[in-house]
Design a protein that fits this description.
This protein is mainly beta. The protein contains 3 helices and 13 strands; from the N terminus they run αααβββββββββββββ. It folds into 2 domains: about 30 residues, no CATH class; about 180 residues, Porin (Beta Barrel), CATH 2.40.160.
């Protein structure tokens, strides 16, 4: 007569039930391990969505010979292609302006950064102001220029073109120097365009620049600007 364990095993197999515990422990193999799926790589679109805002705050002081000294304030906010900017005492004294723009960046060795902007001006001057901000860079050299066409809402006779340009050389990462030129309505000037030398340095997220317009002239102006990036 066959052993009882074999009889019970055959009966369980015929009836569709599980085998006895002692046989299951000896003959049943452990289930194969299930591999966890690898984490999906982020797509370019997802990386772009995670880009954070970049801000800057610039305070500039102007000491003008035979005229009133004044302060100017500029705030910018950028995220990917979007550019937002607010200014005070920039296009004119006691005047606010706000802009929206589109950032375009190209190149590595030779860099090209262009931001077309459009905005409004309110205060001593009320205007619509389309414009641009452009930076060209190559190794140690950089040209930054910005301009805007200020269309006065009260009188077309007061329309004008504002501009600011800097051509600089950076022999080291933290120091730069060069030339600056501007055309502004913030004060009365004998010349349409004033220019002069400039120099500045960077320390982490802080930039400090000095400007010397029309040295020795009747319109001589010394300006200093402190910019914080965060």
């Amino acid at each position: 007569m066959p052993p009882l364990s074999i009889v019970f095993a055959l009966a369980a197999s015929l009836l569709g039930g599980p085998p006895p515990a002692d046989i299951e422990a000896e003959d049943q193999a452990p289930p194969p391990a299930v591999a966890e799926p690898a984490p999906a790589e982020e797509t370019d679109a997802e990386v772009d969505e995670e880009k954070e805002w970049e801000f800057s705050l610039a305070l500039s002081g102007y000491v003008v010979r035979d005229d009133s000294d004044y302060l100017a304030l500029t705030f910018t906010a950028d995220r990917d292609w979007l550019h937002l900017e607010g200014r005070f005492n920039y296009e004119d004294l006691d005047t606010f302006s706000a802009f929206i723009g589109y950032n375009i960046s190209k190149g590595e060795t030779f860099t090209f950064d262009l931001t077309p902007i459009i905005g409004g001006v309110v205060g001593n001057t009320d205007a619509i102001a389309p414009g641009y901000e452009l930076t060209l860079g190559y190794k140690w050299f950089e040209l930054y220029t910005e301009g805007e066409f200020v269309f006065d809402l009260n009188s077309s006779d007061d329309d004008y073109f504002y501009s600011w340009s800097e051509l600089t050389v950076s022999p080291v990462d933290w120091f730069y120097f060069g030339l600056v030129a501007q055309r502004t309505k913030a004060r009365d000037m004998d010349r349409e365009i004033e220019w002069g030398p400039m120099a500045g340095f960077s320390a982490g997220r802080v930039d400090f620049s000095t400007y010397f317009f029309q040295p020795g002239g009747d319109d001589q102006t010394i300006a200093a600007s402190l910019t914080i990036h965060f």
